[in-house]
Amino acid sequence: xxTNISSEPESRIEKYDRDLLLRLYERIILIRQFEEEVKFLxxxxxxxxxxxxxxxxxxxxxxxxxxxxxxxxITSTFRGHGHALAKGLTAREMLDExxxxxxxxxxxxxxxxxxxxxxxxxxxxIAIVGGGIPIAAGIGLAFxxxxxxxxVACFFGDxxxxxxxxxxxxxxxxxxxxxxxxxxxxxxxGASTRIDKVMKNIKISDRAAGxxxxxxxxxxxxxxxxxxxxxxxxxxxxxxxxxxxxELLTYRRTGHSRRDPCHxxxxxxxxxxxxxxxxxxxxxxxxxRSDIGQTDLDLIQAKVGREITDAVEQAxxxxxxxxxxxxxxxxx
Length: 332
Prior knowledge:
Layout (H helix, E strand, L loop, with lengths): L1 E3 L13 H26 L14 H9 L6 E3 L5 H6 L4 H8 L33 H14 L6 E6 L6 H12 L4 E7 L2 E2 L2 E2 L19 E6 L3 H16 L5 E6 L17 H8 L3 H9 L7 H24 L15
Helix pairs in contact: 1-2, 1-9, 1-10, 2-7, 4-10, 5-6
């Protein structure tokens, strides 16, 4: 097992291509601005359903998905907006989905908790805690049996580690050396229960040793550290070296859902993690580059803002599914 926590990206920022860095910045800003817009739409009552948001966890989604190829797959959770945007879904198809429109990425039938687009390599989100883990193992088995060079990244939270599906999925991937990167977004809380109340050993990456493969704990608010760890893990999988368990240490800035006031999070804990915001950290290191200035970042923010505004206006006008379509795409 290896560990990579609190690394200093300033020492390695110069090796990156400028265009890649700006693409990473655009994606992480897109997720934050998207979530902010969705929050207000939900609170004003114009958006149906419920939402589970990923404010503060943007670097985990962007870092992992940026390390994948276009034809690689991911499985997600009910907190999947960031995963979807990071994997290439557009704000427009996602907002259409959130408004229940027929033009949404899941034809208006999935909503916030089941976001996805198979053509872009994202299985629609699975709201059952840990439910995506055995499915990711199955996808990895399909890749291996077909001798395809693809990998699947499986996102889940720290709460999912207590589910039987975690053991079954990881064990299956281990015994057959499947190309799966298991990505645990450890935000310290399973709903409102802190991790140290349900685990004696709270270092989740240690679990990998019990199945016979590599685990790594990474600073999940360090975008470049996540990206580098994910690239290593994906490459190992492509080389037939079996699965990898990445534990990404992060923190959600909002409640478990929009109705959760987070009273279980202490003030000191929240202040410490808020001062460790992944976007602010990434901006700080970007601006150490001589070829990236604040104007570049401002232009990207403005572009993203226009994209989201246009998507919201389109979603408000989008057509709802027809009654005749009620039973289409239903298989069970």
